[in-house]
Amino acid sequence: MDVSDVAAGARPGHGEPTKRPEQPAESAFDPAGEAQDPDALANAHTADGAGKGVGKQRSFWKELPLLIGIALVLALLIKTFLVQAFSIPSDSMQDTLQRGDRVLVDKLTPWFGGEPERGEVVVFHDPGNWLDGQPTPEPNVVQEFLSFIGLMPSAEEKDLIKRTIAVGGDTVECAKGGPVKVNGKALNEPYIFPGDTACDDMPFGPLKVPEGKIWVMGDHRQNSWDSRYHTEDATKGFVPVKDVVGRAVVVAWPINRWATLPVPDTFDQPGLSAVAAVAPGAIGIAGAVPIVIRRRRRLISGRTAG
């Protein structure tokens, strides 16, 4: 703390009324008007400064538990409503994702009613014992705590990560030696693991995806236990939208693997949407109906007049 220099006023001349100089807060005069020892005043300021410093330090340590508590609450809120980290435990999404990658999953969009779209990489809860028999690692105490607040993926949750190929209302199919087709449109899939085929190991369809469900496949087609292998069980190979945790948006770890996970262009091709595929016919029928009705009325009216 800086010590302000205080100048003593000149003693007034003889016979002039005595004026008491205005004293600042830190004055070199005591209440009786006597001058104080400058060294004692400086020492007092030094002691005050040291005392205030100690007070601030104690205040910080008192507030530290509150700051930690607020940080934990924010971490829990972020994990619950915004994003969560997940670890990739297998090779089923190579080369897009490698075993051991950490991805950040957008959990906010599902909270506002958003549903998975074609081409998105999504994390979802096991819909019907798809992971039955898969080993679950035993986390230590530190891993459990970090998983609880969302700073590490949970080792106990049995979640899967795949690419959404078709959504409710779509028709999806794949013949041996051919590409995957959605609503009759062939998909160009550059994200498939090099050397893999679209579905030669397990052809399927055509299948109509029920509303509120999605059809998922791994990018490493010959090493992915995805929708194709569950068409005979209770799920029929479809994943309920309600079981989707969220969309994986970025590979966050390791640093040299950092990358975003955009929707491939093949899912933006015209006519891929089931609605768009039906729309031209529906528009044609809607336009033809009034013409037919008008023509019929004219014919009836002409016959009546005759």
How are the secondary structure elements laid out?
Blueprint: H1 38-82, E1 83-87, E2 102-106, H2 108-111, E3 121-125, H3 141-148, E4 159-167, E5 171-174, E6 180-182, E7 185-186, E8 204-208, E9 213-217, E10 238-240, E11 244-253, E12 259-260, H4 274-305
Antiparallel strand pairs: 1-2, 2-11, 3-4, 3-11, 4-9, 5-6, 5-8, 6-7, 9-10, 11-12
Describe this structure in words.
The structure is a single chain. The protein is elongated. The termini are far apart. A hairpin with a 5-residue loop joins strand 5 and strand 6. It has 306 residues and is an alpha+beta fold. Helix content is 29%, strand content 19%. It contains 4 helices and 12 strands. The strands form 2 sheets. Strands 1, 2, 3, 4, 9, 10, 11 and 12 form an 8-stranded antiparallel sheet that branches.
Average pLDDT reading:
73
Report strand %: 15-25%
Largest sheet: 8 strands, antiparallel
Distance between the termini: 113 Å
Which descriptor suits the 3D outline?
Answer: elongated
Q: Which structural class do you get from the secondary structure elements?
A: alpha+beta
Element string (H = helix, E = strand): HEEHEHEEEEEEEEEH
**Number of distinct helices:** 4
Quantity of strands, as a count:
12
Extract low-pLDDT stretches.
1-35, 49-55, 275-293, 302-306
Rg (CA only): 37 Å
Instruction: Bin the helical content.
Output: 25-40%
Descriptors for this entry?
12 strands; alpha+beta; 306 residues; four-stranded antiparallel β-sheet
